[in-house]
Amino acid sequence: MSTLDSIVTGSAVGAFLPLLTAIVQRPQWSVLTKKIVAVVTALVAGLLTVAAVGGPEQFQHGLPTLGTLAAVLAASQSAYDLIWKPTTIAPAIEAATSPKGTAAGQ
To answer: Domain map of the chain by residue range?
Structure first.
């Protein structure tokens, strides 16, 4: 697989990653905690994308791997800010998957 294939796949993964991240996130978490979870999730998804598209030998090539990680991170943050947050889909998933009876400050 080429570097372009890996980056394009990473962008597609990143576009939908906020929906999966919203399952783990909790409404009462601080903005910093949510950002850390989102970035770590994007980096893990990027590594999985590199392995899935290019195979384990792809990790020998630093720049394509870094490019894919950056594509997943950029796509996930952009998609969240431009699509999933304004449409309230991600926040709705977050609220729906949070344990009930847990109020902020408890």
So the answer is: 3-97
Mean pLDDT by 10 residues, the chain (106 residues): 82 96 93 96 94 79 87 96 94 89 48
Of 70, 25, 33, nearest in space to 49 by CA: 70
CA distance 56 to 3: 14
CA-to-CA distance for 93 and 7, rounded, in angstroms? 27
What tokens appear for 20 in the block?
A: 């999966």
Q: What is the DSSP letter of 86?
A: T
**Tokens (6 digits) for 50:** 């590199």
Residue 17 identity: L
pLDDT at residue number 3: 75
* pTM of this structure: 0.83
- Enumerate residues 6+ apart whose C-beta is below 8 A from 57: none
Do 2 and 50 form a contact (C-beta atoms < 8 A)?
A: no
Residue 98 is given by DSSP the state S
The Cα 92–Cα 65 span in angstroms is: 33
